[in-house]
Structure formats: structure tokens, C-alpha cells
Amino acid sequence: MTLFSRKTFAHGIHPPGLKDDTKGLPIRQFPFAPVLVVPLSQHIGKPAVPVVREGQEVIRGQCIAQPDGFLSVAMHAPASGVVRRIGLTPSITGRMTSGIFIDPFPASTQEVPEGTPCDAATANPEEIVAAIQQAGVVGLGGAGFPTHAKLKMPEGKSVDTLLVNGAECEPYLTTDHRVMLEHSDDVFAGIPYLMRATGATRTIIGVEANKLDAAAVLNAAIPDGAPITVETLPVKYPQGAEKMLIKALLGREVPSGGFPLDVHAICTNVTTTAEIGRLLPRGLGIQERVVTIGGPGIKNKGNYRVPIGTPLRFVLEWAGMEENLTRVFLGGPMMGQAVSSLDIPITKGSSGVIGFTSCESSPLNDSKHYPCIRCGYCVDACPIFLNPSQLGLLAENGEYLRMSEDFHLMDCFECGCCTFVCPSHIQLVQHFRIAKAALRKAKVEAKAKDDAKDEPKPKDEPKAEAKAKMLA
Amino acid sequence: MLVLTAVGSIGGLTLILGTALVLANSRLHVEEDPRIDAVEDMLPATNCGGCGYPGCRPFAEALVTGAVLPGKCTVSPETEQIRIASYLGVDVGAEEKQVARLACAGGANVSRDHAHYEGLESCGGSALVGGGGKGCFWGCLGLGDCEVACDFDAIEMSRHGLPMVDEDRCTACGDCVTACPKDLFSLHPQSHRLWVACRSQEEGDEILNDCHVACTACGRCAMDAPGQIEMRNNLPVIDYSEGTLTAKPAQRCPTGSIVWLDPKEGAVRGQSARKIIRRDALSDAPT
């Protein structure tokens, strides 16, 4: 291990870490809420299809929804109980999505029966990919991208390095930190699955220098002879972003519009890796996740293993709210989402529940903004070398198409560095998110129009040809 | 001498290039129907795209070729349409005027907010933060993206934060349809008088805690107009092609989410919904 190596990426910012409150607190089990709501769409891709009926009794860990297609994962019952109904539930995206409402049995032992194990040493890559999909594993860092879809190698692509992301650069969050400290064995149990599925020959675990204790624990726990190294990275935001981590650890740059696969790397979050290492050898599915409940608005801060589907209202009531709590975020304060309803349940992507009081969120700070003075701070902060200042001016005039065509808007991953440094308090990243949403909507509409146009034409011919070819 | 060289060379160049231009003008001349210019002058030059063409000139070209009739331009006053028609010697073409309609009636006086949104004053931005603070996830956020998008000043936000469409000014260009992040606007012929002013897909009376004029999917309107109204996704869907519609289905609606848009009286609600009339905004969110 090289301490304080200069491995990092250019640009970025240094927000205060604010992790001291919770980083020393061990992971504790969170109680079951009187009703748990498991949304069918907790990941990017198609929602899962429920395989339980209303009124059916389920056992904790039982599969209650099957994946619909490849870009979709299974859902598991977070508690033994009875399915009360399958209906609409609010989600963090702002849409109402279908969810399975489960009333846990108060007197149940909540034991999780084990399923068919998947052995890292003998299983072939396809079996591992299928097992991960069946276990319902998605990116637990917050993105919610199905992990198995990442591991499936497209033809002609290869991977040489697996990066395990233990950067956790968001302020307040300490879930990855605690997992690395307490479950390092799970992390090392998970790595062989990922390496075998992707064909990677070495693994690097990237840990930021504010978690040296975790790095030391991991370093001591590396199995003999395993091609695994632990690297310490200088503290900087957004080091935990996939592209930034690849740049910091491997010095490779993911091309615009490309994926880590294009530079022969694959990146998984350390909690995801630990979860794979915990679930797959026992044939289990995700029914809970580690969540940091913190921020100045929370009384009993800590790291908890929270059942999936616990409503936010129950989380806050149980953890205790300060009287002047005004804002609640799911995820960290930089890239997390402010919630609009406390009925939103904890999902696989929720890495933190952060409460702010009226002291932190003065409305004056946010609502008043001044004209751009062209200081260029945002240009110096943008980790992917965009020009947020110019993009912001275009966004104010609604020139969304030009933003994406001439200024690479679609490469922006909304880390919020530009907004953080702007002395004029211009909400740049909010503008970009609006622009991206508008462009996505336009794209969907254009596609629908095209489809409607194409429909009357006989489009079967090329398909029939392809079929004939396949048969031949 | 120096002066003469300069004048001579530049003059010579001018002559050569001028000749080239004159030749190009005569050789590469494109014959264009002179009526296109004339018709374009008679069009309103707003380039709104409401006719389905990219702008007024392409529409003028289509008019001259006879692909469309002047009545398709909903922005021109009737006198101008007749002028174009008589100039081209075609029918005016009675095109039914279309207007933008909002599928939400939940202003601040009848609906509650779950959270208070702070940030960019835009519905697009608000919708991205957990769908905005409104109790009803489908409802109008009231920050006026449509008002900004409208080039004809046809949309004005009411004091309860709902966009009001001035049907005389609306040209059905569709800008508000694109601007609304909740997809609440749609274009309809003015004769479509029966209107479902709600998009809530929730079933049952629970939604009434958030909005007093929400559709509860009771299905009474569908019962009163069989064949014309069908319940789909917990919302009534009106089939305007099926016979003549009357105000009858709106009569029994308990919440007034289905209305009859009278040209004179505005939105007319059924008997049982009359009581939901408030002047002031509702108090804070229920805790």
C-alpha cells in the first residue's frame, strides 16, 4: 500500500467531509416497519413482475418479483408477512410506481432460508451473471444500475482490471466505510465472482485517505496470492464517480459517451461487492441494505441495516427528528435527491437518509442568484472538462439542442461541482438536469412519431430475412 | 503607378466576378411560383408550426401546390383566410379550431402540497425533485413553464396557480404540450366540450386528501354515457367520435373532475360538485 500517492483525477472540489458523527458507529439492525413497500422498479431498466398474490404469505428473503427481461432484477421479501396489496407508491423519481405492500408478522423470527448456492470457484460466467440477477443486486452506491448487466461482456470487449469503489466521496455518508471495516471478508468473497464473470486478471480497491482504518483492515485481509491491491486516494469529490475512479487508479480516460468497458475496466461499489460475497454463497437475495441515517436534523445518527421498503416516515420517527428538520435527502447531499413525500420507501439505491434543519437550508442561499461574472470557477471544477458557464447561459435561453450537440451536455453526470463553486449562486446543475430531461422527452416523442410513421409500411421483410438467415 | 495598379487589379477582379455572378444568376435561376411570396405576405409570419408545417413559408408553398387549404392556419383571422382563398381560387376550408386544454383543475385553493419546493422557478426543475411538492403526483405544479413557452400570450397563470388558456388567442401550436413536464396539456377541437380535468390514476377516495377535485374512478360518468366514456387506468376516457356528447355525464361527478366547457359560462360542474368552491388557498399540508 502506498500511502498518499498522487493517484487522483484533475479538477473536482473539496466539500467538507462531515463524516465524523457516524463513521465510528457500527452497523445496527433497523426494526421492521408496520408496513413495508417494495417498489417493483428500484433499478434502471424494466420493472420486475410480481409473482405473489394479494393475501399471500411470504417468508423473508423469498423472491416476490421476477426480472422482466435482461435489464431488470428480482425482488425479495424484506420480511416474513402477508402481502396486503399490490398498488401505486410514490418513488424518488417523482412518478408513482407499482409496489408490493407487505405487513410483517410481529411474532415471526424473521429467519432467512438459504437457497441454491453459487460457487465462485466452479460456476461459469453465465451462471454467475444469472445468479446475481436472481439475487436482485443493483449498484448500491446510488445509481441503481443492475450489476449483472455490467458484468455481461459484449462480444469483442474484454476487461483486464476490476475496480472496487470504496471512495465514498459524498459528505455525511459512511455506509461503504463501515462495510469495509466490518465485512471485509464479504468484500473478498465477492471479488472472485466479479473477476470470474468478467475475466479480469487483477483487482484494485480504491479507498479515500479519510478512511485509512478501512484501507488497513482490507490490506490485512487480502487472501494470500490473490491479485488484489488496496490503493489510497487523496480526498476529493467526485472521486467515487466511475469515470473519475478509473482516471485516478488506472490513468485511463473513458471516451465521451462511452463506458468503462471501452478502456478495459469495470467498476463496482464496495458495498455491492460485499453484498454479492454475502448473498451468492448462500443463494439469498437482497432484503435489506446498509443506510447512513445522519445529518444535523437527525437525533440518533448511525449506520443501520434497513429492510428494503421501510417508509421514510418510519425511518425518521424511529431515528428521531430535530424539531426544526426541514429537508430530507435520499443519498448524499451532493448528488442525492430531496424527497417530496415521506411515504417514499427505502430502496436498494438509497445509501443515506440525510436530514437538514432550517439552519443549513436557508432559503436565501438558494433562491437568490446573480448574473454569471465569467470567473471560470465552474470550468476549473468540472471533472469531465465541460464548460458549465457556457452551458448555463445556453440553458437559460432554452437552447437545449445546442447544449448537447456543441457542448457535450449528455456527458455531464450531475455531480454538482459547478453549482457548489459558483459565486453567483447560479443553479447550474439544476439547469442541466432540466435540459437533459427535456432532451430525453423530445427523443422519446420523436421515436414515437417515427414508429407511428413506419407502422403502415410492411416492415416484416428484413425481419423475415434475418430469421431465414438464422435458420440457415 | 501604384495607384493605377491597385485600381486596375481590383477593378479587373470586380469585372470578372461581376460577370460570373451575372452569368450564374441567369444560368442557375430557379423558377419559383410568384404566388408563394404573395401568399407568404398574407400569412401571419409567426412560424408557430400549428399547421403542421415547419413555418409560414413551407405552409405557403403547400398552399400554392394545393396540398392544404388556407383554413388550416388557425392564427390568421378569417378575413385573411378568405383573401388567400380568393387569391388562389380555392375553398377556405373549414378547419375546426383547436385549442390547448389542461387536464388538471387542482389549483392552490383545492389541492394540498406535501412539500415546499425551493429552487429554480420552473416546473421542469420542480418535477425533477421527487416530482415536485404537490400532494397529487400527476397534478399541475403551477410554476408556469407553459406561460413562458406560449408565444401568443394565450396562457396566464390564475391566482391559484393554474394556467388559464385564452381560447381566442390559442393557435394550437403545441408549445405548452412540449413544455409541461407532467404532460397535462393536449390539443383538442373547440367542439370537444366534455372534458376530464384530472390525470390521477389512483383509485378510491384517498386522493381527495390531496386534491378536492380529483377523479376517484367511481365510474358514474362512464355509466351515464355508455359507449362514449370508458374507464381506463382509473380515469374516464372520452371517445369524441361516438355520437353527440352532452353535459349529462358531468352531472353526477362527485368531485367535478369531469366538466362541461361552456363557451359562455366556462367550466360547468355537476350538481354534487358545486360545493367545492373556495376563494382562498388551502392551509398547510396535513401532518
Reconstruct the topology from this structure.
The complex is a heterodimer of chains A (472) and B (287).
Chain A lengths: L19 H4 L3 E3 L6 E4 L9 E2 L6 E2 L4 E4 L8 E2 L4 E10 L5 E9 L20 H10 L12 H5 L9 E6 L8 H8 L1 H15 L3 E7 L3 H10 L6 E6 L8 H9 L14 E5 H10 L8 E7 L7 E6 L4 H8 L5 E6 L6 E2 L13 E6 L5 H5 L9 H5 L6 H9 L3 H8 L9 H5 L6 H27 L5 H12 L1
Parallel strand pairs in A: 1-14, 9-10, 9-12, 10-11, 13-17
Antiparallel strand pairs in A: 2-8, 3-5, 4-7, 5-6, 7-8, 13-14, 15-16, 15-17
Chain B lengths: L1 H26 L6 H9 L13 H10 L12 H11 L9 E5 L20 H6 L16 H5 L5 E3 L5 E3 L9 H5 L5 E5 L4 E3 L23 H5 L4 E4 L2 E4 L9 H4 L6 E5 L3 E3 L19
Antiparallel strand pairs in B: 1-4, 2-3, 5-8, 6-7, 8-9
Helix pairs in contact in B: 2-3
Description:
The complex is a heterodimer of chains A (472) and B (287). Chain A is an alpha/beta fold and 472 residues long. Chain A has a domain at 372-449: Fumarate Reductase Iron-sulfur Protein, Chain B, domain 2 (Orthogonal Bundle), CATH 1.10.1060.10. In chain A, 32% of the residues lie in helices and 18% in strands. A 6-stranded mixed β-sheet of chain A has the order 1-14-13-17-15-16. The model of chain A is unreliable at 457-472 (pLDDT under 50). Chain B is an alpha+beta fold and 287 residues long. Chain B folds into 3 domains: 35-88, Orthogonal Bundle (3-methyladenine DNA Glycosylase II, Chain A, domain 3), CATH 1.10.15; 98-188, Alpha-Beta Plaits (2-Layer Sandwich), CATH 3.30.70; 192-278, 2-Layer Sandwich (Alpha-Beta Plaits). In chain B, 28% of the residues lie in helices and 12% in strands. Chain B has helices spanning 2-27, 34-42, 56-65, 78-88, 123-128, 145-149, 175-179, 220-224, 248-251; strands spanning 98-102, 155-157, 163-165, 185-189, 194-196, 229-232, 235-238, 258-262, 266-268. In chain B, the strands form 4 sheets. A 3-stranded antiparallel β-sheet of chain B has the order 5-8-9. Chain B has a two-stranded antiparallel ribbon with strand order 1-4. In chain B, a hairpin with a 3-residue loop joins strand 8 and strand 9 (266-268). In chain B, helix 2 packs across helix 3. Chain B is elongated and about 95 Å long. In chain B, 38% of the residues are buried. The model of chain B has no long low-confidence stretch (mean pLDDT 87). The A-B interface holds A 88, 90, 92-96, 337-342, 344, 361, 363, 366-367, 427, 430-431, 433-434, 437-438, 441-442, 445 and B 114-115, 117-120, 122, 124-125, 127-134, 137-138, 178, 181, 201-202.
